[in-house]
Amino acid sequence: MERGRNNEEEKEEDVAMSAQQRGGGCNYGDALYWDARYLEEGGASFDWYQRYAALRPFVRKFVPTSSRVLMVGCGSALMSEDMVKDGYVEIMNIDVSSIVIEMMRRKYVSVRQLKYMQMDVRDMGFFSDESFDCVIDKGTLDSLMCGPDAPLSAAQMIQEVNRLLKQDGIFILITYGDPSVRFHHMNQEGCYWKIILYIIPRPGFQVTPGSSSRKSFTEPVPLTEKGQLPAGFVPEDPDSHYIYICKKLPHGLIQPLVQ
């Protein structure tokens, strides 16, 4: 039993290290790193992983435009702006970096649908329980996994997301982590989810001619009863992004459900 736990932890560390290597060894779990980076970039826009155009089919399918949305770890991304252009009426954006929050406030001062606050995703006590219809994370959990006390940080974040979501609310998690290194973080005490998984390739990935690729990346990926990928399933792009659509279920269920 002890050996199995260590193997799981080692795989989790490999995912985090891979994310750091893609960024040249940067410590994505450190708030000071982000302050320095945003100062250096001078407010230039940057979207991690995917732009809204690629994520739109999933967002529009599960999140009505009238929803009150919380964008965690917003950074300098254009995603919230693009969602407003697509009809979304209320998006609260938070980030641990006070530098980027001030930049974004100035940039969008005239856009009434967008609000910005400096906040740590592990402690969002400013907001009341069940005050959002949807929470979107595009890389924030992955950043925490690169920092110290990663399992504790992940647990704090997921519990806070669960607290803030209304009943039947939607948590959209975009991550490099496959189910073997993400489902146990979702399975926190008091958190009950119905989860649908999509897998999409990174921007610019070229499908190999003649490969047996799935018909559409907008089709959900089947999961086992334990919430894992089927045996032998390998994404065509080794650096694919995993999109977890997590619906908050009523308290009292024995375990998270997978669709």
TrEMBL record:
GO terms for molecular function: S-adenosylmethionine-dependent methyltransferase activity. Keywords: Methyltransferase, Transferase. InterPro entries: Lys/N-term_MeTrsfase_sf (IPR051419), Methyltransf_11 (IPR013216), SAM-dependent_MTases_sf (IPR029063). One of its GO terms (biological process) is methylation. Residues 70-173 form the Methyltransferase type domain. SUPFAM superfamilies: S-adenosyl-L-methionine-dependent methyltransferases. The keyword Transferase applies. The keyword Transcription does not apply. Residues 1-21 are annotated as: Disordered. Belongs to the methyltransferase superfamily. This is S-adenosyl-L-methionine-dependent methyltransferases superfamily protein. It comes from Rhynchospora pubera.
